[in-house]
Amino acid sequence: MPPPPPTAMLHHRRFPLLPPLLAAAIALAFFFLCFIFYRKITRKRTVPTDLKPPFPPQRFSFSLLRRSTDSFSAANRLGQGGFGSVFKGILPSGQEIAVKLMSEASIQGEREFHNELSLASSIDTVCCPYVVCVLGFSTSDGKRDYKLRFYGRRKKRRGRRLALVYEYMPNGSLQDALLDRKCAELMHWNKRFAIIKSIAKGLDYLHYSCDPPIIHGDIKPSNILLDCNFEAKIADFGLGQVLNREDEMIDTFVEEEEEKIEKKGDDYGSIIEENESFVTEDAVVVNVEQSPDDAYCVRINDGEEGVGVLETSPSERLEKDCSASEGILDRISVDSGNRKGITGRDWWWKQENVSGLSDSGRVKDYVMEWIGSEINKERPKKEWIKSTSSIEEGSAKVEQNKQKKKLEWWASFDREAIRKEIKKKKPREWWKEEFCDELAKKKKKRGPKLDNEGELWWQKDEDGVPEKKKRRNSIDRWLDGFSGEFRIGRRNSQDWASGDIPKSGGISSTPSMRGTVCYIAPEYSGGAHVSDKCDVYSFGVLLLVMVSGRRPLQVMASPMSEFERANLISWARQLALNGKLLDLVDSNMQSLDREQAVLCITIALLCLQRSPNKRPTMKEIVGMLSGKSEPPHLPFEFSPSPPSNFPFKSRKKVR
Ligand SMILES: Nc1ncnc2c1ncn2[C@@H]1O[C@H](COP(=O)(O)OP(=O)(O)OP(=O)(O)O)[C@@H](O)[C@H]1O
């Protein structure tokens, strides 16, 4: 009898595939481990080692940001903006950072993300220490972000997460430090003047030294951040745009034409004046601020159907309809009936902390009354404020005709023809010689911003391999889709209008109007091209806020005495007319330099002129502030003693 085969031999015969299967499993495990090891290595590369500018913003891994901010904990939350929250984080190297986590649902947030990154590559924060440095960004791919549910099915946890990483600014925003915390450091004139100069230099850099030049588009105290020494830097380029000098020239041309028509007494000219001056000069009705408990706010908001709503209280309100595309005001009415419920348009009212006003309901009434009287003062012959019914019945037709006429007039401009005309008449304008030629020279020296394959720096992966050569995910395709918008330097207004999601969660900004109401230049709402003079206007408002240490619209506890000061801009103009500019200065200010304070207010009034052409450039303003150029004179209309033979009429159009 033959001996029984050894058990191993038996197994071998029973499972002939076992050895190759085992070998395959070991090989697979080996490859898997290699893959994990490779991922670890490549991930490590996404943690930038040297975060000292200049450098193009780097890609951070989302998990690193999550770890450095303690999972975006509430304790690390620095603030909340329109497109998401900002958190403090500490990198493994010990470097402090601020991470702006874009809100998941916000389309505008995605735009801001893209915009900020596109523009960040143009800003050299070494040359210009007055701009907050964007250290990097992170895009987490939602597809891979799963969590295991208890019954074993995998569920998508969240979508794509976008984050921007900035240098950390320990003293937060100017809004917070000056207006809310009222930091002692900012009560010294020297500090405030230094901040003013820094902001001016920052804007000058953006307008004239950046390649390409940039319009910030949203200058306001909450976008000025303060470092540990209370040095100011400009932040938040979410609404920034590349400056297009040609468009600016066309605007100048159109403005000149408007003025010609106005001089001729054309009816249409007066329509523009009415519409624009309402926004500009009676800024009280369009001002918006996140109010403190004791402040009173009036807001214009871009509603769902492109309707601008001016609200003064839930019970009384001013309402103004705007054309969604042009922002043309065509109807204004006062509804003085008692409103029981708060409609959708009253959302902002609910958002504001109105509890502080409850004991001073009279304040609202006074403000309302005052707004009415101010508007009546401005328009003594024309009944601007009427009951809703009377406007609808009586003047709807007239308004419609005016509106039609205005639209026709605008449509009559052939932009291409104008462009040609301008080039023919003035073939080499200063801006071409000084600006375009300089740009061309710079470009030659530095080489193009795009690499050989026409890719933007941030479209490349962290290891430098162009993204095109790799598998592209949805974020990349999306980013590509938007990039053209910035190269041509303009945004389509429809892009904004279609956003629908109010910035600041309905608190402070309105992206369809491209700025923050109250700081926004009047021509924004008139459908004009965005120019650097829009930043100049916002800088003017900021100057007044810095000198006075208060918000642009605010009524304090005692309504009657403070009443005429509610609107900072009107009040400043009034003081200028009375020759009492220094009354505007913050009463808490220490070691005031009166000459510098007067200089600042004068510059502010120059910046706040209705016509963008009349406003100084940021370069001129820097010259004035640093004493290199002649101190400016007040705009003639605000001069306290006009020649007696001149029929002076402040802020009013002679009709
Ligand atoms: N780099 C930073 N360092 C320190 N704090 C910051 C930094 N960036 C933002 N913050 C804080 O986060 C807040 C929110 O900033 P964010 O730019 O998102 O919104 P905002 O400018 O206040 O509002 P909006 O989005 O309407 O313009 C700021 O007011 C500031 O206090």
Question: How would you describe this protein?
Answer:
The protein is α+β, with helices and mostly antiparallel strands and 655 residues long. The protein is built from 21 helices and 16 strands. It has helices spanning 7-14, 18-45, 62-68, 107-120, 174-180, 189-209, 245-263, 267-281, 347-351, 361-378, 388-411, 415-425, 430-446, 474-487, 493-497, 522-525, 532-548, 559-562, 568-577, 594-607, 618-625, and strands at 58-59, 77-81, 84-90, 96-102, 134-140, 146-148, 154-156, 161-167, 214-215, 224-226, 232-234, 241-242, 299-302, 308-311, 317-322, 329-335. The strands form 5 sheets. A 6-stranded mixed beta sheet has the order 1-5-8-4-3-2, with helices on both faces. Strands 13-14-15-16 form a 4-stranded antiparallel beta sheet. It has a two-stranded antiparallel ribbon with strand order 6-7. β14 (308-311) and β15 (317-322) form a beta hairpin. The longest helix is centred in the first third of the chain and has 28 residues, at 18-45. The termini are far apart. The site of adenosine-5'-triphosphate (ATP) has 26 residues, from β2 and β4. Residues 78-83, 86, 98, 100, 132, 166, 168-169, 172-173, 176, 218, 222-223, 225, 235-236, 503-504, 508-509 line the site of adenosine-5'-triphosphate.
